[in-house]
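Sequence only, no structure available. Ideas?
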Amino acid sequence: MIYSSIHYYKLLLLFALFLGACTETQQQVTDLTSDDDPIIGVFHYLSGFEPLTEDSLVRVVIEIPAGTNAKWEVEKDTGHLSWELRDGEPRVIHYLAYPANYGMVPRTLAGDGDSMDVLVLGTALERGKIAETRLIGVLEMLDGGDRDEKMITVMPDSHFAGIENLQQLEEQFQGILEIIELWFANYKGPGNSVEILGFDDLDRAWEILHESIQNYD
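Reply:
I predicted one. C-alpha cells follow.
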C-alpha cells in the first residue's frame, strides 16, 4: 500500500499519540534495560494455562509491553519468559516501539511453528502478566514465506471495552489498523521478508485460533 507524504506523517503523529497513552502505565513496567533475568511463572507459560476462559476470552502471556523495544519471548524448552538473544546479544527492535502489547496464547501452535502471536490494544501491561482479552480480528501476514498471523484483541476493562470487531475499531479509533500494518511491514528494516496480506474479520480470527489450539493438542 502506498501512502502520500501527508498521510504517512499523519499516521506517525497518530502513532506518537497512541504510544503517549501508554506512558503512565509504562512507568510501572520493569525497565527493559535494568533487569534481564528470565521471568518464571507460577505455571509453565507454554502449557500451564488454558488458551481460553469459560467466557471465551483469550488468555495472552504478555511478552513485550506496549511502548517498549526489548524482544522478550517465552522459551520453548523451559516455559520461562526471557530476553531473546541474537548473535549472543539481547535483541532490541531498532524501530519505533511496539504500538500495542505483544504476547502469545498458551497451548497453541501457529503456522510458523511457534505459539499464536497476539496484539493486545490498550495501555502497557506488565511483562509476564496473563491477560484475559477479547478477540476482535486478525492481521494475516507472511514472514520468510511462513504464516505469521497476529491476533488482535482488546482488554475488556479498557477504553476499548465496547469494541467487538475491527469495523467498530476503525469507526471509533481511526488510524490504529493503519499504524499496526505500517509497523509490521517496516519494523525489520528495508528488504525484510515480511509480506502483509491484510486484516480479516472475527470469524476468520476464531478459525485460525481454533486451528492453532487443535495443532497443539
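The chain has one domain: 5-216.
Hope that gets you unstuck.
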